[in-house]
Amino acid sequence: xxxxxxxxxxxxxxxxxxxxxxxxxxxxxxLAVVAALVGVASAGPSGAHGAHGEGSGASxxxxxxxxxxxxxxxxxxxxxxxxxxxxxxxxxxxxDRGAPTxxxxxxxxxxxxxxxxxxSCGQGCPLSLATFQQIDRDLAGRAGLRGKVRLVTVSFDPExxxxxxxxxxxxxxxxxxxxxxxxxxxxxxxxPVLDDYGQRVTRRLDVDGTDSGLLEHVLKVFLVDDRxxxxxxxxxxxxxxxxxxxDIQTVLAE
Length: 254
Fold this sequence. Notes:
The chain is of the alpha+beta class and 254 residues long. 37% of the residues lie in helices and 22% in strands. The chain has a single domain (2-252), classed as 3-Layer(aba) Sandwich (Glutaredoxin). The chain contains seven helices and eleven strands. The strands form three sheets. Strands 2-11-10-5-6-7 form a six-stranded mixed sheet. The chain has a three-stranded antiparallel sheet with strand order 1-9-8, with no helix packed on it. Strands 3-4 form a two-stranded antiparallel sheet. Strand 8 and strand 9 form a beta hairpin. 37% of the residues are buried.
């Protein structure tokens, strides 16, 4: 019975995630066209999900291929709407110094871009980090915008991604704006966060049942407003810094 309930809960969380994404695409025909165009281009570098193995982590200058495919011109900020598609709660985590911090912990008039990764991931996570770095660099040159946007990279591998390791990741990426790198004290404290955001993670086991060190997950980044409402969800096909920046400006202009 317990196994059945757990399976039902997992299915419900997955359904919620798909429903949220579907609502987001339905919000504007332009974004649906964007998704179709970018989805064709994104089939090459990496898929939206799968086993992400041990890699070298993020470098200070991610490859140019991770970022805007430049196959389309994203819709202008404010020319479309992003209705709320879900709501999240505040969660207590740890920053890269080991101090308590809040996720997303926004002030009035701010938005957050929240991405879930793990430091040793070699595929989808570098795409998320590279896109965040592009956005960070762009925000650094916009005095009227950068104080209104918080970037948050959250590890879903707290057993290995300690605050020290998240600090090392931060140092390698050299943030220029408010880009926070957070983790949890343990898996038990992380699970409510993953459930709240609909971020599914599975630890892959070797044939002998031991931990392989690989995590399977769907790449997701969330745009959250100051009322804790999710305004868009980005995966591989929509991980374009220009589109995300336009979405941020659209929400902030409301």
